[in-house]
Amino acid sequence: MIGDTLTPQTAYAVEAHGLVKTFGDFRAVNGIDIAVPTGTIYGVLGPNGAGKTTLLRTLLGIVDPDEGHRTLLGDPQPLRQSRLVGYLPEERGLYPSMKAYDAIAFMGALRGLPLKIGRERARAMLEAHGLGASADKPIRQLSKGMAQTVQLFGTIVHEPRLIVLDEPFSGLDAINQGKLEALIREQARAGVTVLFSTHVIAHAERLCERIAIVAGGRIRFEGSVAKARDRLRPQVTLRTRSSDGPWRRALPGETLAQDGAWHFALPDGGIEPLLRALLDADAGIESLSIERPGLHDAFVAIAGEAVARQMEEDRAREDTA
Amino acid sequence: MKDMMRSAMVIARRDFSAVIFTRTFLFFLLGPLLPILIGMAFGGLSEKISNDSLRPAMGLSMPPAQAARMLDAREAIARRIGADHISALKAAPWPADPQQLLARSDAGYAAVVSGSVDRLVLTGQRADIARLEGDVRLIASAAEMRATLPEVRVERNPVALSASGQAQARLTTGRAAQILMFLLTMLLAGMVLSNMVEEKNNKVIEILAAAVPIDAVFLGKLVAMLSMSFIGIFFWAVCALAGMGLLAGPGFALPTPAVGWPVFLLLALLYFAMAYCLLGSLFLGIGAQAATVREVQTLNMPVTMGQMVVFFFATYAVDHMGSAPEIAAAVFPLSSPFAMIARAAQDAALWPHVLALAWQALWVALIIRMGVWLFRRHVLHSGTKRPLFRRRSPPAS
């Protein structure tokens, strides 16, 4: 890997404290603390306009923060580590007249990879992903999906230690989304830290070991997906043959009767006392399920209903587009 | 610094190949030759027209013997001082009214000479009379003195060069170099204005800004455009030399500059590069602020006017070596290359050029830095609290 000798591995690939970035009167990033452990897949989750892109651009050193400080691979000047970083911006950009393999090699060369090696790797990558025939085509002749793939290869051709992807799934069809997920996992297995932003909860839930939920320029939650889900207690759904009896006293206070079933959060003492009461009173248990809440439910609980609704709208808009 | 230069070269190589390996570059190379070829064709034609028919001649309406004396005298003077330096005479009908002769559109007389050799009458418009009277008197005097006009012989004592002639010749070389440099800079540096628009429009700027310092982007673009300009200049120079060889023959030579031709040509190359980088970095910085091609087009005119002002300043100073304006033109960064190439033609000292080149290089760096600062602040919306210049911090451990 290029530059392995330049900077020793740090515990956190990215660290920031008290980051503030203002555009005019608008605080896009409003006092964010974040720490991305080395070697993890880390998701920044939030609706459009939450400040995700500005946060990533600030972390990468494209813009400087107004307040706070950040380190990238342990360096307070992120651009100095650019050889070890790959970045896929939200707004994809390639020179239309460049050939596909040359575009990949150029992006690698910007980050210190010799052009010759870059060209060889580019051809191999395109070949391996079934795009060998398009290697010599100019970008303007490629489909949108192919061009995005070319840019993604350009992001990783120099074998970076940290990959930052801003809304990487945006604009990709389901097949290409699956391929991208596989590629992210492959990179993570190789020890690369992957930091990506998304407004699609499912991607974060499938891929991320840790997430930061961002809304209104602030981090509302930071931690593992499991920890986010643990913010909500597991949900119990109970169906009984008998609708009434002394066993009902054992149901928690906030139990909701809906569609012929009882719904309630798993009590602190566990399910056993309720089970015992149901059996003793011969309530006739038809079904009993205990489900851990999904990340979506956790997100609603953490960021609020309005933000969650906005995320759904963003996604629907993107699907329509 | 090494990393920045490496990044700049990556950008330069991309920009250079993106321009060179296109069909439009062929038009770029051939473009400047077309007006020259057309100019030469029309120039030759107009010279012929001017020689043949449009040069005004005076009508000579005198008795035939007197007219013959006048025509002989004019021929004799023309042989001595050159036909271009004495007004032409053309035999006109006699006797005739000079005013009627002037009114004839087919004759094309500028004025009419009538009367006799010792009593001439010059009829024409007031301005023409004032212009031609001296010539007519000279011709008539020669005609009168034909028999007795003494011809004093001059002994020829040729020297290689007089101080005055040498200074004049060198000044000519300096002026020619200045004009050529200005034309090339105006023609080529203006293209830099629109250089960042492509990156901004196709969003590549985000990729570049995340990977390399913006200084490297600016420098790379400047190097690419300068290299492309050198290719153009080389091509045009070869064409020009071939053309001059064809037109002027083997005897054609320019006055030798004070520093000698090899050093002068090297300095011309370096000063052109500096003039290009100084104006180019300024244009790059200005153009980078523009969001669209239309904005760049709007900026073109004021930028060209600015170039003209700089050039006029340097041109004014060239006649006054060592004067305050000349020193000011040499010190002011944007006019410095033009002033200094004129100095190289007139003064053999080399140390001022070393100093000037270093000074100009410093200003290129400063202007790039300023452009980058403005770009980061207004386009990337970054660095509101970042100083224009900052101390290099030690590398992270």
Automatic annotation (TrEMBL), chain A:
Keywords: ATP-binding, Nucleotide-binding, Transport
Domain ABC transporter stretches: 14-241
GO molecular function, one term: ATP hydrolysis activity
Pfam families registered for this protein in UniProt: ABC_tran
Keyword Transport tagged: yes
Protein name as it appears in the record: ABC-2 type transport system ATP-binding protein
Source organism of the structure: Sphingobium wenxiniae (strain DSM 21828 / CGMCC 1.7748 / JZ-1)
UniProtKB/TrEMBL annotation, chain B:
Superkingdom as given in the UniProt entry: Bacteria
Membrane topology value: Multi-pass membrane protein
Subcellular locations according to the entry: Membrane
Residues of the signal peptide: none
Keyword terms: Membrane, Transmembrane, Transmembrane helix
Coiled coil spans: none
Chain segments annotated as transmembrane: 176-197, 230-252, 264-287, 299-318, 357-375
InterPro entries per the UniProt record, alphabetical: ABC2_TM (IPR013525)
Domain named ABC-2 type transporter transmembrane: residues: 152-363
The protein's name: ABC-2 type transport system permease protein
Species this protein is from: Sphingobium wenxiniae (strain DSM 21828 / CGMCC 1.7748 / JZ-1)
